[in-house]
Amino acid sequence: MIILIFLILHWYLSLFAQTFFLHRYSAHKMFTMSKFWEKFFYIFAWITQGSSYLNARAYAILHRMHHAYSDTEKDPHTPHFFKDAYHMMLHTRLIYNDVLNKRVVVEEKFDRNFPEYPLIDKIADNWVTRLSFGAAYVAFYIVFATHWWMFIFLPIHFLMGPIQGAIVNWAGHKYGYRNFEEKDKSKNTLWWDFLLMGELFQNNHHHAGAKPNFAAKWWEIDPTYPIIWVMDKLHIIKLVK
Is residue 241 over pLDDT 90? Predict the structure, then answer.
């Protein structure tokens, strides 16, 4: 029971860091926040992602490229040029590393207006820190796992961010329905997207990239948006009108 709670908490806290901070804030600037809260959520993203930490600058640039070149050969993560999600994510990883390490020239329209904290990145984005998080996950399982098969869940903790990204970018551009006719192949995979906190409303999102609520129809539910709405009312963030 403890292992299941830990897995669910890790999944949704990491996912919230990705959809709220990296995606809707860093990449799209759907809302603003003070430097205090920006640094808070930057650290929050590091702690919750742990061994699969994603750099905000590299994430924002790749995601902006994804919107600009959606489902073309210049898209960093489209499923339509790969036989499976694994090979798609390997390709994404190569582009991510090139952008992260500044080995490629990035178009100016993509390479601006995102949070940067080099000291936090220096600590978070190194193998000692990543392996330490991995060791902590293993130690937790050693202490609390009651059956051997529970250890099968460990790879999910190790690769939490890439797994979530693979599901969104593969399923969200291959399976589901479309509310809007866009030039790309984006789809809404689920009607009530509690599994990926709204990220699987890809067609809605590609139609209105600056809209903080990824749901478009009355029967669609984006569980991240109510949290954003409350944060706006509490003045933690300020929604961009």
Answer: no
pLDDT of 60-111, one tens digit each? 999 999 999 999 999 999 999 999 999 999 999 999 999 999 999 999 999 9
**Residue 197 reports pLDDT greater than 90:** yes
| HEC assignment per residue over the chain | CHHHHHHHHHHHHHHHHHHHHHHHHHHCCCEEECHHHHHHHHHHHHHHHHHHCCCHHHHHHHHHHHHHCCCCCCCCCCHHHCCCHHHHHHHHHHHHHHHHCCCCCCCCCCCCCCCCCHHHHHHHCCHHHHHHHHHHHHHHHHHHCCCHHHHHHHHHHHCHHHHHHHHHHHHCCCCCECCCCCCCCCCECCCECCCCCCCCEHHHHHHCCCCCCCCCCCCCECCHHHHHHHHHHCCCEEECC
